[in-house]
Amino acid sequence: MEVTKQEKQSFARYKANNTIEEGDLVVMYLSKETMSIIRIKDGDYFNCKFGNYKHSDMIGLQYGTKLGSNTGRGFIYLLHPTPELWTLVLPHRTQILYIADISFVMNFLNLKPGMSMIESGTGSGSFSHSIARTLAPTGHLYTFEYHQERVNAAKKEFEDHGLSDMVTLECRDVCKNGFGLENKVDAIFLDLPAPWDAVASAKKAFKQDKIGKICTFSPCIEQISRTVTALNDEGFVDIQMYECLIRFNEIRVIPLWTIEQAMEKQRAVELKRKKATPRHMRENNTTEEETSAKKIKTESATAEESNPGTPASTATTTTNNSDSEMDDGAAIVIPKSETPSAASTPVLASEAKIETSTPTAAAAPRERIDPVNVVVTKLPVEQRGHTSYLMFATFTPQTQHPSLTQLNAEAAKSE
Ligand SMILES: C[S@@+](CC[C@H](N)C(=O)[O-])C[C@H]1O[C@@H](n2cnc3c(N)ncnc32)[C@H](O)[C@@H]1O
């Protein structure tokens, strides 16, 4: 039998066969706020609020599959890991860069495949993953971190994520000892408490015959001030500062019920509730029906009052019944080990028999009501504010005169 060699997974590209295999990393997406990453191992389980998922059920599925849980309570998406998702699920060892700053910095540094770049400190490796993917497949990232445990953790992650060929990670204090690289890189990014101490060494690391870009990331304006002085002294030009704020707008699709549809729904709910109540507990059948009829009448009258001139049947009301954020109507796969027939291939949820009602609450078949859906946007209460100031400057071979610091030092010597 022909044994096909498993393709090595990398965060720099999608797997060509797009298939989940033993040993692969998979991002388990429950919602935008709830994600985690697992490594597939036959015999292991992934537990979440929707139930248990067997890893073995995921092997052979395509990345992007929507997988139903054994409890029928929800579903998850099985996603291929990317630098963007890694930023959201990584173990935090330090503060990290998020996608707003990452994308802005990469654009302003003009990063392209094939370039070489310096980054310091590596921290939790959030930015490193995005840089590596952009420089791939032929470029190179030199990343420096002086905290040994962080170096060890990041090194393992780069190996596990198929990036070690294009990332060189070194344990080094770049402010004290510089980068140890000369005439080597196109771009430099400094996320350090004292970036000004690394500027002189950064200048040497740029390819001396080309234009290069540097960015420093600092939360305080005092740090920016010292960095500007250092950049000016070293002959960098085009010094600019930005602050990147992100304002998120939540987009939701909600049903727009007409009063008539809302009333019909309410009637069905009342009927179901009535049927679920044992006969001996129903004190007065007529009273309950009367109450619900009265309630509906009042609602209808209120709607007409608030929409003068609008007949109750055309006035609208909205209900937000979107249970799951990515409920896009895509087919859900039920894990094969959970299907009653133990069929060898996963089945669609629509084909699976799911018990939803108790014998006492068996609802009478009723017509399905399909409301018109509308798209609304909503600003969440919480907004993310200032993270850091982004300082950009350009290295150009034309302005490489002796720096002010050098001139002052020489003047002091000759006095
Ligand atoms: C805020 S973290 C960087 C986070 C990183 N940008 C990310 O997205 O994950 C700053 C890192 O710089 C490292 N660091 C501070 N001073 C340093 C120096 N002089 N040389 C090398 N690393 C340094 C710290 O140990 C820390 O891990």
TrEMBL record:
Bias kind Low complexity: ranges: 306-322
Biased composition (Basic and acidic residues): 280-298
Transmembrane segments: none
Keyword presence, Metal-binding: no
Entry annotated with the keyword Metal-binding: no
Enzyme Commission numbers on file: 2.1.1.220
The reaction(s) this protein catalyses: adenosine(58) in tRNA + S-adenosyl-L-methionine = N(1)-methyladenosine(58) in tRNA + S-adenosyl-L-homocysteine + H(+)
Single GO BP term: tRNA methylation
GO cellular component: nucleus; tRNA (m1A) methyltransferase complex
GO function terms (MF aspect): tRNA (adenine(58)-N1)-methyltransferase activity
Key words of the record: Methyltransferase, Nucleus, S-adenosyl-L-methionine, Transferase, tRNA processing
Protein name: tRNA (adenine(58)-N(1))-methyltransferase catalytic subunit TRM61
Organism listed in the record: Entomortierella parvispora
